[in-house]
Amino acid sequence: MPALICGSLAFDTITNFHGRFADQILPDQVHILNVSFLVPTLRREWGGCAGNIAYNLQLLGGTPVVMAALGVDGGEYLRRIESWGADTSLIWRDGELHTAQCHITTDTDNNQITAFHPGAMAHAHRIAVPARGQRGDLALGIVAPDGAQAMWEHAEQMHREGIPFIFDPGQQLPQFDGAQHRALLGMARWAALNDYEAKMLEERTGQTLAEMSRRDNIAGIVVTLADQGCALWCHGERTHVPGVKAARVEDPTGCGDAFRAALLYGLERGWDLVRCAELGNRLGALKIAQRGPQNHALDAATKALLG
């Protein structure tokens, strides 16, 4: 059955700094920070969390339904998504603003500094989750980074329509206060974060991951740990799922989105969370070996995990 993917569609400008940010930023001088990084390489890629998740889900054989906003320059991106066979009926086109733009600089430690211009994404709340009476085939969904109002409203709408969803705040986590995060967690079935976001969420909510995972409505909280794999929190208990060694490390952009697509694929098929995470770790390892978030393909080992 289809999975509803709410999030951003963006054009990514990806550059590489052939050094370490830590060597250029003086911790005791951050209050007067003024740095410049020479970036010899530059690429423009298809991106945005919704686009990346949908790309990976269709690779796995899932059925993505993309719910996102594109700008006046988004026609080619729309045609690209349609070429996958993905459902684009819930993509909204803004008549004035440009498509969101993401500028990412990665250092040799795979740390990233990102600047994001929302563009049409700021109006993503104009799209509404279909009512069950209009469309009853949506098995589950994800609320991925998007306009803050859109994330809030789409979470409420999915909750109201009985569509179980993953709450994936990502870079938009700081846009919500503790009370809002507690409310969003009260509507979600799962949450997915990286380790930095998990610490921030604990600070915002005043709750530990163990406490959050004991909520009656929460079936699991997934915390990705880069090459160390991920931690799963279920009913207060932590399980570590080891990472998968990548053939090479080219570009971490979009690895988290690849992982989330694997979650959607497995959860829709009734897999337990460990099996979903194992697939997510493997798909993330495939992605990091390729430049850009939408250029990798499945290998034989990954296909074998699909059953």
The chain-level structural class is alpha/beta
Amino-to-carboxy terminus distance: 17 Å
* Contiguous helical run count: 10
> Any idea what the CATH architecture is?
3-Layer(aba) Sandwich
Order of strands, main sheet, comes to 4-1-9-10-11-12-13-14
Percent helix, as a range, is 25-40%
Extended strand count = 14
The residue-averaged pLDDT reads: 95
CATH superfamily: Ribokinase
Contiguous runs where pLDDT drops below 50 for at least 5 residues: none
Reading off the top of the CATH hierarchy, the class is best stated as Alpha Beta
CATH topology: UDP-N-acetylmuramoyl-L-alanine:D-glutamate ligase
- Our estimate of the beta-strand percent is 15-25%
Helix and strand string, N-terminal first? EEHEHEEHEEEEHEHEHHEEEHHH
Cα-atom radius of gyration? 18 Å
- Main sheet overview: 8 strands, mixed
Shape descriptor reads globular
Count of spatially separate domains: 1
